[in-house]
Design brief:
- With 156 residues, this protein is mainly beta.
- The protein has one domain (3-153).
- 12% of the residues lie in helices and 35% in strands.
- The strands form two sheets. Strands 5-1-9-8-6-7 form a six-stranded antiparallel β-sheet, covered by helices on one side. The protein has a three-stranded antiparallel β-sheet with strand order 2-3-4.
- It is globular and about 45 Å long.
- Pfam families: DUF1203.
- This is DUF1203 domain-containing protein.
- InterPro entries: DUF1203.
- It comes from Sphingopyxis soli.
Length: 156
């Protein structure tokens, strides 16, 4: 069994980079500059921004379902990057981070969850998908709680 992890579609976020500080603030968003090569994970490219790169920090609904598990939190996005796709492997943004993996059924109800220490995400993902009732998994940074990526069964 293999899986696929895709970055968010950049199109819905592209207009944010044209807004000034007041326009962003009206959307509860902020323009930030990465101060280090780690710690500013772009949810489109699934890579950390490099020091000096501009990002938008915004509130994002990552689990838009009609269940008690609907979820939203702050994420970073960069301009000019393409949505990443990783098949059967974890993206760079997972490296060195403990992750909370939340496994959902097709109706958007949480079935189980797992903590994965750095380097354990691949094994934990495959283990969760061993249950046929798991339709998809959401990865979150365990410490800060922010959405990292959606993980789906690979239909290919």
């Amino acid at each position: 069994m293999t899986y696929v992890i895709r970055g968010l579609d950049p199109e819905p976020f592209s207009r944010l980079f044209d807004l000034d500080a007041a326009g962003l603030a009206a959307l509860n968003a902020r323009r930030v500059t990465a101060t280090a090569d780690r710690g500013f994970p772009c949810r489109i490219s699934l890579e950390d921004a490099r020091a000096g790169e501009e990002l938008i920090l915004l509130h994002h609904t990552s689990h838009d379902v009609a269940t008690p598990y609907r979820s939203a939190y702050a994420i970073y996005v960069r301009s000019g990057v393409e949505a990443a796709t990783y098949r059967g492997e974890t993206p760079p943004v997972f490296e060195g981070r403990p992750l909370a993996l939340r496994a959902f059924d097709a109706a958007g109800m949480l079935q189980t969850a797992r903590l994965a220490a750095p380097g354990e995400a691949d094994t934990a993902i495959r283990d969760l998908f061993a249950d046929d009732g798991i339709a998809y998994i959401h990865a979150h940074n365990a410490a800060y709680g922010c959405f990292a990526a959606r993980i789906e069964r690979d239909a290919a």
